[in-house]
């Protein structure tokens, strides 16, 4: 991506204007990232009761930190790049220009790390949902708040259980105080002091069903002879909620960071080539001369970056 080219004053002006515009775009993208982080925090907190042990503040914190650093970093870059468009306003403090490019390179790495963090958190969100929804199902019969939450989730996301409606068949979700435990029909379903049967809560019923919902004795087709298929939601709540998180949080944020990553890379290359061209022109005492612009050959433009700092110190 980095090549050596000869750039005149017109070329430096074009590169200066290009990087100025690019840095302005990155400033706005940094604000977008910050706002997205706030939105993610709100949406995660809204579903936090379903996510066992998940820290809803970690991911938004990294994103807000990245957005804040980007904002101030590229504000400074706008000043440097715009000044570089004109010989009269161009700074001769090349060591500061190099330092700024290094900071933007650090931002590039930081954004790349953020993408990795998002992918890691996607797995954490899923595992916490599995534990949280499973726990809510077990507490369904005794905890009214978690019962209401579970019913709302199953209704809103049109889902049932952790992985499927059959998950309800494996736990005792009916409170024994509401059934006649002395009845022979009930006793045969009592296992370990819990009523376990092929029943599911009414909130599992599919909205698309054109007939009355069968959520008791679901697998007993002798009772429900005229039903061709189960009319409960077939999608598990973990998959349904994860699909929601991916659609509104994970994928859009990852794409935003990926776009920022590409723009940061372009910004680094063009700023570096602009800086080396300006430095080389100053070296020959002709600020408007056509000079080489590069980003690989030496880090300071015509020499090592340490040489720039030594000159500044002297």
UniProtKB/TrEMBL annotation:
Gene Ontology cellular-component annotations: membrane
Give the location in the cell: Membrane
Write down the InterPro entries for this protein, in alphabetical order: Tetraspanin/Peripherin, Tetraspanin_EC2_sf
Q: Where do the TM regions start and end?
A: 21-42, 62-82, 94-120, 241-263
Membrane topology, record value: Multi-pass membrane protein
Offer one Pfam family short name for this entry. Tetraspanin
Keywords, in A-Z order? Membrane, Transmembrane, Transmembrane helix
Per the record, the major location class is: membrane
Protein name per the record: Tetraspanin
Organism the protein comes from: Biomphalaria glabrata
């Amino acid at each position: 991506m980095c090549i050596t080219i000869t750039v005149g004053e017109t070329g430096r002006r074009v590169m200066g204007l290009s990087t100025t515009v690019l840095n302005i775009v990155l400033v706005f993208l940094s604000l977008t990232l910050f706002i997205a982080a706030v939105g993610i925090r709100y949406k995660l907190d809204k579903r936090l009761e379903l996510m066992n042990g998940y820290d809803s503040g970690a991911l938004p914190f990294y994103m807000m930190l990245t957005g804040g650093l980007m904002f101030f970093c590229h504000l400074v870059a706008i000043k440097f790049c715009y000044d570089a468009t004109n010989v009269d306003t161009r700074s001769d403090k090349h060591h500061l220009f190099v330092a700024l490019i290094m900071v933007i390179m650090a931002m590039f790495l930081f954004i790349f790390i953020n993408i990795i963090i998002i992918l890691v958190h996607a797995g954490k969100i899923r595992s916490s949902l599995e534990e949280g929804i499973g726990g809510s199902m077990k507490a369904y019969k005794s905890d009214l708040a978690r019962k209401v939450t579970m019913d709302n989730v199953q209704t809103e996301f049109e889902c049932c259980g952790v992985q499927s409606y059959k998950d309800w068949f494996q736990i005792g979700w009916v409170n024994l105080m509401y059934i006649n435990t002395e009845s022979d029909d009930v006793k045969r379903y009592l296992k370990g002091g819990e009523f376990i049967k092929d029943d599911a809560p009414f909130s599992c019923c599919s909205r698309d069903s054109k007939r009355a919902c069968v959520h008791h004795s679901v697998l007993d087709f002798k009772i429900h002879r005229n039903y061709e298929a189960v009319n409960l939601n077939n999608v598990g709540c973990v998959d349904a909620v994860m699909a929601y998180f991916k659609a509104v949080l994970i994928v859009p944020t990852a794409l935003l960071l990926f776009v920022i990553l590409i723009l940061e890379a372009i910004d680094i290359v063009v700023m570096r080539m602009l800086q080396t061209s300006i430095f080389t022109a100053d070296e020959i005492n002709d600020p408007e001369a056509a000079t080489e612009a590069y980003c690989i050959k030496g880090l300071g433009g015509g020499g090592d970056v340490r040489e720039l700092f030594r000159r500044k110190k002297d």
